[in-house]
Request: fold
Amino acid sequence: MARNTHVPADTAAPPITAILAKFVANHPSRGWSDAVEREAHRTFYNWLGCAIGAARHEAAEAAVAAVQMLEPAPQATVLGRAEKVDMASAALVNGITSHTFDFDDTHLKTIIHPAGPVASAVLALAERNGASGRDVIDALVLGIDVACRIGNVMYPDHYDRGWHITGSTGMLGAAAGCARLLRLDEEQTAMALGIAASQPVGLREQFGTMTKPFHPGAAARAGLMSALLASRGFTASSRALEAPRGLVQVASDKRAWHEATDELGERFEISFNTYKPFACGIVIHPSIDACVRLRAQGVTPQQVERIELRVHSLVLELTGKKEPKDGLQGKFSVYHGCAAGLIYGRAGEEEFSDAVVNDAQVVALRNKVQASVDDGIDEAAAQVTAVLQGGRRVEVRVDHAIGSLQNPLSDAQLEAKFGSLVEPVLGQARSDEITKTCRTLASLADLRLLTALCSA
Reply:
């Protein structure tokens, strides 16, 4: 008996699997503007710092211990550590660490964190094969374009269903990037995308646990394996993305097919990447930024009777934890973010430690934050009012937080962030040397010169 579906299948969908495969296989090296090239380098650099910074986190320790049970061949570096593992395991672990602090890049249109899956897969393969920096940058730009374009096709419906879109599109970007690095032809690249399309990973239920950063790591590993399989003749549906029972139509009621192909090869989604100044979910950033600005205006925690916070409903849906118990939960608490911003004037990884989340001063101020929903405020904005003793009110509205497209981190700010993450793991001298190498990454003859620097 035939079953009804909520939304009829689109049997006339365009052949986006083949179109994207052709694009990835044939687009010329460095076939984009200087602005795109600059953003590719910034994206890779930001991802690298995040991955090294979390190298000693308990999630990294657990992941490395688990993959070592497989007795892997030492093909690729676990960033920030002494271990080498097989390239698939390196893609997994580096993908995990790059997202552990929730400090990585964000494609704001879809809230995908694209470098986690793509760069983790591409770097592991590049190290194993001795690829050049130019090859890696090309693969990164094209892989991120594929992941984010499919994200554009499905967002927000796909995300609203409960998918963690970084993982559930990231395996496509990782497959595309690795296919490019392997120099697969159009047909092989289509097969790599097809194999990857059967491996979406990530449910939003896992937010606030170690399994959230597992999603980009698993997507990186899946994409890399998809490209390796395709390189050896493994087959998949040539319509795996668009078919009625393909990824897009199964995982989303929104099917904006044109988003996959509009200005393909002319507009690159990496151009819209942003880099976090605060180590938590992007929707908290306007509120933290507002509280940092209150502090700059002379407001102190001791003066505050209450903080009135007005935000979009998505902010409280995603980050409404009023009483976080540890650092990981603190990343999903706009209340904690506000307290940290006002007390410390920043919200890096240190401000999301277990100790800070449970500090008496932080808890006291956090309890004074009163958040309310105002859907007249954009999800990328916030309005914060500090009500002080004596009744004086100090109000700050943030429409474009620091780190947004409209108010991006400068190169100097990005380098300061990188140093704060990498120096505790590898030391200042090594951090400075990695920074110098990354500035001219595309001219590097062999990526192993970089990964050697990134090994503990």
User: Anything to note?
Assistant: The two ends are 60 Å apart (CA to CA).
